[in-house]
Amino acid sequence: MRTFRALPTFNGVGVSQTATLDIPIGMTLHNILLTLGGTFVPSDCSEIRVKANGRTIYTCSGDDLNTVNKFDGRVGSTSAMFLDFERYGLKTRAATEITAIGTGAPYNNNAQSPNYNPTPLNTLQLEVDIDGTPTAPTLTASASQSAPRPTGLIRHRRKFVYSPTGAGDFEIANLPKGLLIDKVYIKSASDNIVSVKLDRDNFRVFDRTAVQNDLVQSDGVRVSQSSWFVYDPTEEGNGAESLATQGVSDLRFIVNVSGADTLTAYVDYIGGFAG
Fold first, then answer.
1. Of 27, 138, 163, 266, which has the fewest Cβ atoms less than 10 A away?
2. Are 105 and 149 in contact (CB under 8 A)?
3. Both 80 and 146 in a single domain?
4. Could you give the CA distance from residue 85 to residue 78 in angstroms, rounded to a whole number?
5. Tally of domains in the chain
């Protein structure tokens, strides 16, 4: 059975400060609900980071996290945000929960064991960078948790920024390869994305206009968001769908834009903690 309970108090909650929270080890972490008070709203979180064993595994701004939550089908809010470690909104519970962060299981380097756990998490920390805007900000966190389990597969969210200088095709060909890609969220600062194509080792595996993408995803389990183009293999709720990149020599997203722009791409990878 899952529990939902408050996490310890943040340290350093204040204007132009980084609030930090040491998340207790010992349970499997499905999501964290951040609750904001004062005049503190998601856009005042310039960056949110999750660190496992001191290494960043997740990064996103508060405003972008709120938009991603709405795309996934959650209700957006100006006073609270869900930080999901599992994949929200899929058709089966197993597919949804496979990327919940397992802690509390001991070290086990036997690859044949069902409790194989070569890289147990010893520390888990949440950091929130607060900008200079809010008055008397407050920040608390609660977590949905279940029984301990090995670390297993987790979702790594990485951020990349690109700057097309004019209209036409802009190629993103430097994304790290090796892990499965669950989603690629591309935010356009000027709402200039016309279409996106995806080539993997010179074979085209995806080709849609922004209008087509919004229609397909809104007809499935997602809610399209203005100025965002999301490549989402799980758009119909099938958790087994993902983009394999192991052994791939060339992977490129070809983004057609109608003018100069700034593109922020969040890439959700799925893999072990060592990946």
1. 163
2. yes
3. yes
4. 21
5. 2
